[in-house]
């Protein structure tokens, strides 16, 4: 396949902007030649982009697909007044109630929403304590049916007792070993842990040992709220910090802990809208950047639209610091760093349009009304591209969204089935 007549943001090493580009997609789902249109008719299947903007598919480095079933859920009365109460009264009640069908349909719904918003890869942090065994296979099935790339893990936690913690551990291990036996590279795995404050020393120790034995990383919430302050220090003590570790949030970290994150090459994932929603505080992106901590961007299940997170990342920094200079560079870097995290944590070569990278891309109905160059991409992303409809999403060389419709599954039918599942789940809460 060759895409012609596209304005291409390559996000490759040269960060090229091609005003009228041609991009070849090779069998096997990787990019071939990326060049300015040469003229003449290329051979093979030609897709005319009609001047649309072509860029790498978006990446969401931390989310919870099952949270799709919290949409419109009956409110808790009185509403929780702090972070721990939010977990106890909302999320841990919801995840304990999930059955196998709920896991499947909530994942499908969240993945379809993500696909239609141009997201080609998501790192999911799953929890279903009363349907733990085999749950990651169900989430994987949803990924494969929608056609998205995923990195999965199960949220090991002591919050429901030692047996549930042990089940979580086994589910991670089983899934990591199974994924390793596959070869298509579209599904990756981490060793999931909920957070340092919900696991015992023994659980952390055994998860870290097993993750290392399996050459997998730990995916964990870190210092999201004040109640988890000191988490980086504790995780470091158990050897949990390395190049494959994915640490969501890192809001309440000291300067010394930032240095630890940098020294061990930890992948931090910033989730600004979730942080606002839970009123847990603002991550100090400038301080993290100054210490060369790698920070990417996730949604924590708050939204399928990564553009919202990009905007929030800028605005939260400005509001928190009182400076109209804050956040811009850090937010743009975080969006681009997701491709680095995808490579380090899960070995995925995505997030750039360049020969040899996986062919995950979007075509956007965006025709820049002002000059668009390599130097001002962020301005166009934030104020233009973010507001433009996504016409096409291709993952691994295969269409997922075409003509603004999800073409792999029947969105309407799935939504109807999901709504019935959600209604039944809410009645069991
Ligand atoms: Zn999370």
Characterise this structure:
With 429 residues, the protein is an alpha/beta fold. It folds into 2 domains: 114 residues, Roll (Urease, subunit C, domain 1); 289 residues, Metal-dependent hydrolases (TIM Barrel, Alpha-Beta Barrel), CATH 3.20.20.140. Helix content is 38%, strand content 22%. The chain has 13 helices and 18 strands. Strands 1, 2, 3, 4, 5, 15, 16, 17 and 18 form a 9-stranded mixed β-sheet that branches. Helix 2 packs parallel to helix 3 and helix 2 crosses helix 13. The termini are far apart. The model has no long low-confidence stretch (mean pLDDT 97).
- Name the shape in a single word: globular
Oligomer: single chain
Number of helices: 13
Task: Give me the count of strands.
Answer: 18
Q: CATH superfamily membership of the largest domain, which one?
A: Metal-dependent hydrolases
CATH topology grouping of the largest domain: TIM Barrel
Q: Can you give the mean pLDDT?
A: 97
Helix-strand makeup class: alpha/beta
